[in-house]
Amino acid sequence: MPYLKKDVEALLKLMYFGDSVAETDDLLEAAKIETSTFDELIRDNVDLIPGTKGSGKSALFRIVTEFLPGVLFEHNRVVIAHGVQRHGDSVFHAFRDQFDKFDENQFVEFWCIYLISLAHEHFIKGKRYSDSLSSAKKEIKDFKEACFRARVPEIDKPKSLAEVLEWVIQVVKSNAPKLSYEMPDNTGTFALDLFGNPAGSNPDSSNKKDNKKITDGLPFYANEIKEKLEAILTKTNLSVWLMIDRLDEIFPRRSDLERKALRGLLRATRTFQSKRIRVKIFLRDDMLENLVSGEGFTALSHVTSRQADRLEWTTDQILALIIRRIFVNQKLKEFFDVDEEKLKKSKDYRVELFNKLFPPQVHGGPNQSSTINWIVSRLSDGRGVVTPRDVIDLLSKAKQHHCDDITSNSDGHTAHFFDSASIIYGLEEVSKKKRDTYLKAEFPHIWKYIEKFEGGKTGYTEAALKKIIGSNHQEVTKDLMAIGFMAKKKKGGAYIYWIPYLYRKALDLSQGNE
């Protein structure tokens, strides 16, 4: 039905899609979409949650750590302890010089102590759990004594992230001295460290001796503290989830430091958790792939045994995301006489509401896709992944564009709240943003190859890639596909490597193959 433009203008100004960055998204709870990964996490079936940037990892993390601790404690006897979140993580960068000196084993120790600090701060000292902990005074005393023996200090007042990092690093440094012995006749060096592993041995090896200091790569004291924490949890019939997010922001991307730090974390995770202690990590999928490249990672199978499927969104979930966010606003609900229960439960009803707001197609024609399919296909990267972040950005820009257009010409009627021109404009703006904040900012070592495609075509043969990139084109192309910039499909007897719509406008590409 046609709408008065003045009504559309007024309601568009009220329409709000939330923030595309989960940490500042104030619609996250009211308009949340419960995906299969959400269900698996809440049921404690997964510990490693991978996904591309903007796919909803931080949104899921925030829902659990901010909105669900009370529910999980009351109904599941689960304690939520979390760290490395929001933009305070830049504090990690202040310790860059000290982290640079750490080897992988020291990062195992760092993360063990960090996880202990989370349990201490959020559980042992958490007001929410004081009544439950009243029956475990002896066990808490034993836990604190074990921490004292490990030189993990007892600090009564709440600690800032900077304070936590400072004393964790000091503990690691104070425990760092290694005993080394130069073998006669310059035949080599034999070294022992706090992990109980001779230098050059494989910390992931299953051939372990019955020795208290050899605890699968853990520092010798961590196993004792873990046991004392488990005793508290058993006494109180509780479990604790130690949750970590935003790991892509705390170390330089794709650096040796990041690699050592994250491998250390996964090794600590592998052996620190138990049935009552779960370490749940939200990690970029490209970072996970980078961790196992090169020399590999023999402990990965243990870590990934409780890994969720990569966070991906279906077209129906994207549609639900759009409709839920639009109709959070009460005046919009009233204008369209929205039935809240039907909105939540009926896909057909959500489609009906979507069609009242958006044109049936962005480009008219019998072979053109519907508007929702157009949005999803245009925002999908080379791996076929579309993220909520990009959807929210597109719609926010489209709303702004259409609102400006109606304001300058508010007489008469309009068929929809959005028109094709505004949706196309939204895609163009997202494309530019992805170029600058993802390709350029996140992958500067690859950007020098990506910019060679500017002004070119959308598809390339392998011969064309070799001409553009150079002799290392196969390795570079593999990286380009890994980050979603490029995909390949078979055409005839050869492969064509194509750049998805998401990046075409920003790079000024024209349809066709080279």
Description:
The chain has 514 residues and is an alpha/beta fold. It has 2 domains: 210 residues, no CATH class; 269 residues, no CATH class. Helix content is 49%, strand content 11%. The chain has 24 helices and 12 strands. The strands form 4 sheets. Strands 2-7-6-3 form a 4-stranded parallel beta sheet, sandwiched between helices. A 4-stranded mixed beta sheet has the order 10-11-9-12. The protein has a two-stranded antiparallel sheet with strand order 1-8. Strand 10 and strand 11 form a beta hairpin. Helix 19 crosses helix 20. The longest helix has 23 residues. It is globular and about 75 Å long. It starts with a strand and ends with a strand.
Our count of helices gives 24
How far the N terminus sits from the C terminus, by CA atoms, comes to 46 Å
Helical amount: 40-55%
Strand content: 5-15%
Quick synopsis:
This protein is an alpha/beta fold. The protein is 49% helix and 11% strand.
Feature tags:
514 residues, alpha/beta, 4-stranded parallel beta sheet, 4-stranded mixed beta sheet, 24 helices
Strand-helix topology:
Layout (H helix, E strand, L loop, with lengths): L2 E2 H10 L21 H7 L5 E4 L5 H11 L1 H8 L1 E6 L12 H5 L3 H21 L5 H4 L3 H13 L11 H14 L4 E4 L6 E4 L29 H15 L2 E6 L11 H17 L4 E8 H8 L7 H5 L10 H12 L3 H6 L4 H6 L1 H11 L13 H9 L8 H20 L5 E2 L5 H23 L1 H7 L6 E4 L1 H8 L3 H10 L4 E5 L2 E5 L2 H4 L5 E4 L1
Parallel strand pairs: 2-7, 3-6, 6-7, 9-12
Antiparallel strand pairs: 1-8, 4-5, 9-11, 10-11
